[in-house]
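User: Hello, can you help with two protein structures?

Assistant: Certainly.
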Amino acid sequence: MLDEYQELLGGFSVGDFFPSLEFIHSLTGMKARLQDTSRKFDQLIDQIVNEHKTCNKIKEHKDLVDILLEVQTNDSGELPLTIDNIKAIILVREAL
């Protein structure tokens, strides 16, 4: 799934160079593939976050998701962390 996403985002995009030809992505199916892959990633990350939220064990070794959820619950008000922010951080981290 990650390989397909990187292929779709890293490939040549006619719309980037010629905005008036953006409709070509709809004709070639590229737009539908990108939306489908994005939806799958969103569902996967939702599942990961929900698993971490429901796991009430005190962990000795916390991972990135645990730390982000902890920051969200201990909202300092200075920079609120939304669930969308958490999902974006996870997605970017997995792409590296």
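That covers the first. Now for the second protein you mentioned:
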Amino acid sequence: MSGAPLPRIALLTLASAASAGAVAAFAARHRDSLALVGLSNPYRRSAGGPLGQAWRHLRRSGPRLLGYLLVNMALPRLAGLLSPGPGPLARALSDGAARVVAVEDVNGPAFAEALRASGAELIVTFHFDGILSAETLALAPKGGINVHPSLLPRHRGPIPTFWAGLEGNGAHGVTVHRLVPRIDAGAVLAQRAVPLPPGTTVSAAARLLHEAAVPLAAEALARLATGDAEERPVEPLPYRPFPSRAALRDARRRGLRLVDAADIRAALRARL
């Protein structure tokens, strides 16, 4: 492949311990192509706010999932408050020209205006919690791609490493695929299986797979830039939602842990 210039990128992400290091590495690697960085507000009112979301997760999944979410979402933010200073993504963007915006509604007029003003040609979602409408995707001349930590079409949904962990050896991997207005359902651009050590927690698997996705995403972007990208349509398998209490009990019986002490230390280092 030749060194064709990459399209100008609008990077959308949800800051968490599961992806902070990988997203920062992606941003550093493609700093010269970044036109816009959108940071989702996970506690936005339209999603129920922090209390509404916590109650919804508690009713469906019980306290074990709340612990997982606290480690990956809340603990890094607390660490950032207690130890002020730029986190990994802010450091990666410090000498670049990309505008950073908070995203309350990815399909709303405020984000549409920011996307148009940025001149971004391609949207890249990397651990993002919003589904982009066809109208929003059409604002980027080259559409959008998503980075997903599973071997799609398997394990569509918000915590794929939980379901892959239940499935067992050989189930983990990463996929770069086209964005469509359906969760994790677009044509596959690049995919790679990633073996993980036995006993890897759900949280650690997410970090490792997101890290493995950074070079895979770079390959996909290079092929898009040269026109050599092959898009493989896939028939989506059933959506995998947040786990129920029964699924979490099954995971415990099988020895699949959501978090451990190493995950807590990683969350503190993430400093969102």
